[in-house]
């Protein structure tokens, strides 16, 4: 038994090289897969990533796309600066007249004025001359019965008189509160008609009186008036005091 086993082993060792040579002559294995007809090797590991390639050249612009939809309106911006005025436009046609407005107040709220004339030929001396011919006395601040003007609105007034002189000399004075302010004298020339006049600005307080009066004794009351000759006296408020309301 032991001799048979040894004989068998020797036979196999002699036959094996022969079989290997015959197989080598019949099939040539792939050099990339050694022992491909016997046993494949284990798969290898993936290699490392290579370096990035260089940037390519810029491409050409493409065709213009279609117009997009209109977007939502944005918020209102800040007001811009005022621009340069434009050219004047053509003149339009006149409009229709408007309705008549209500009557307004005058520019002068405070009024006081009078203008009077003489009717008597020879006024008495040393008393106020009564000018009874009324030209204007709308506010009734002049009293024809006394010949005196009574101040109702404190302020600055203008007074003036223009007298016809006939038959005798004239001496007159303008009075304020029983005190003579200005004097006028005219010496009459026979066979003639003379004129005497005077004017003054006075500040009056409420209640003050102003009038004309022949002064002196003797023939000094030649103030005259008829249907063609007048002797006049006038006055008016120039401007009221600032504290008058």
CATH C-level of the domain at 113-240? Mainly Beta
SSE run: HEEEEEEEEEE
Number of discrete helical segments: 1
How far is it from the N-terminal to the C-terminal residue, by CA? 165 Å
What would the average pLDDT be, to the nearest integer? 82
As a whole number of angstroms, the C-alpha radius of gyration is: 69 Å
CATH architecture of the domain at 113-240: Sandwich
Low-pLDDT regions:
19-26
Q: Report the CATH topology name of the domain at 113-240.
A: Jelly Rolls
Binned, the helix content reads: 10-25%
The geometry reads as rod-shaped
Range of strand content:
25-35%
Counting helices, strands and paired strands, the structural category is mainly beta
Number of strands: 10
Largest sheet: 10 strands, antiparallel
Could you please describe the fold and organization of this structure?
By secondary structure, this protein is mostly beta strands. The protein has a domain at 113-240: Jelly Rolls. It is 10% helix and 30% strand. The protein has one helix at 2-26; strands at residues 113-117, 133-136, 142-143, 148-150, 155-176, 179-186, 194-204, 209-214, 221-224, 232-240. Strands 1, 2, 3, 4, 5, 6, 7, 8, 9 and 10 form a ten-stranded antiparallel beta sheet that branches. The longest helix is centred in the N-terminal third of the chain and has 25 residues, at 2-26. The chain is rod-shaped. Residues 19-26 have low confidence and may be disordered.
């Amino acid at each position: 038994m032991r001799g048979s086993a040894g004989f068998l082993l020797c036979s196999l060792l002699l036959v094996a090289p022969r079989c290997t040579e015959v197989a080598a002559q019949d099939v040539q294995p792939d050099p990339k897969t050694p022992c491909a007809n016997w046993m494949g090797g284990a798969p290898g590991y993936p290699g490392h990533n290579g370096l990035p390639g260089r940037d390519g050249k810029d491409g050409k612009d493409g065709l213009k796309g279609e117009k997009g939809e209109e977007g939502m309106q944005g918020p209102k911006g800040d007001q811009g600066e005022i621009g340069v005025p434009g050219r004047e436009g053509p003149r339009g046609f006149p409009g229709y007249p408007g309705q008549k407005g209500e009557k307004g107040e005058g520019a002068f709220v405070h009024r006081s004025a009078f203008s009077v004339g003489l009717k008597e030929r020879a006024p008495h001396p040393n008393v106020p001359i009564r000018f009874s011919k009324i030209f204007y006395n709308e506010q009734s601040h002049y009293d024809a019965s006394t010949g005196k003007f009574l101040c109702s609105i404190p302020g600055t007034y203008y007074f003036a008189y223009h007298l016809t002189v006939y038959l005798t000399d004239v001496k007159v004075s303008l009075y304020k509160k029983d005190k003579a302010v200005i004097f006028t004298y005219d010496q009459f020339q026979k066979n003639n008609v003379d004129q005497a006049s005077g004017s003054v600005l006075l500040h009056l307080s409420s209640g003050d009186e102003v009038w004309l009066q022949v002064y002196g004794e003797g023939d000094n009351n030649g103030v005259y008036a008829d249907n063609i000759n007048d002797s006049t006296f006038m006055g008016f408020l120039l401007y009221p005091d600032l504290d008058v309301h």
